[in-house]
# Entry
Amino acid sequence: MAKVVLAMSGGVDSSVAAHLLLEAGHDVVGVFMRHGEASAKACKVEAATPGLMLPVVTAGDSGGRADHKQGCCSASDAADARRVAAKMHIPFYSLDLQSDFRRIVDYFVDEYISGRTPNPCVKCNHWIKFGRLFDFAEGVDAEFVATGHYARMISNPFTDEAELHRGLDGKKDQSYALFGIERQRLKRMLLPVGDYDKPTIRRIAGEIGLNVAAKKDSQEICFVTQGHHSDFVRAKRGADAASTAGDFVTVDGSVVGQHKGYEAFTIGQRKGLGIALGEPHFVVSIEPDSRRVVLGSKESLLRRGLVATEINGLTADGLRPGDSFACLVQIRYNSDAEPATVTIESDGRFVVRFDQPQAGVAPGQAAVIYDETRVIGGGWIERSLVDADF
# Structure
């Protein structure tokens, strides 16, 4: 029987993950991760609830009050996680990550102001869920760390290497968001819900009497709990920050309107532009220096490839400079992986050449490399490539 630290968010996936781990004979320790002021308050309420002791473990100095006003875990989430842990008779801790989570918020704001599209969920998985959670696991002598992600850990029968694969439920697969995890930690990861589809997970939750069986999934950026993400970015920057307002221009350079801030937009966006041009227009590029948002047709979005940096390889032989191979590459969380050729450069970057041009290649998003269902690795999109680059 192995000791397993499980991230418990109060949702149905991590709750059923606890059940599946117990069914497999593991010794499970539940951890609720406090990210912000709201979740801190929630945990104080939970700690005062009779019937279950909820220790609060501080991961570094929280620096007093959190910079941000919304946390990603509400009082109801904390209560749900506590009730599930109590029902299953497993220890339950609250891990204070407020200071760590500021790093995610700062990254989020900085990327938008740089004209890029951040992916805070991927960064959170790398830095916090499979970063600080491993630190906690070391402190309690746990062998494994588990979450409720829809992805699978598979042992290679020939090499005994731990491999990260897509979850069986293609509609819920979250392997894209896990590419940044350190390879040496794969052998200590457990992803119990990845072998099931979502309806089955909900059915199991109902059968064992979990109060979260019908709970809705979280869909939004966890720390942007109200309004548009651009409102959050502006609030974090403060009233004295330099203006990001500027012109809408078409791909030929014609000025067609004004916007209130380029941080409100992302490559490929069509809805919510706040401008009518008589026919559909998409955000083709964002120019932070000139504060211009460039609009064009869907065809003008197409790109032959991309350059990515900060390579993270998840295979034993790595992604070595000079390697060039056919594979599948996914460039957004909800997009399909597309056939491509990847070439690893000597400067820590890799070049992707798609078999067919792709729309919506957004700097700041992750480019994740697959061999069928297996995650080989990935990196962060630095820029897109057009015909002239080939």
User: Anything to note?
Assistant: The first helix runs from residue 12 to 23. The chain has three domains: 3-149+191-207, 242-300, 302-389.
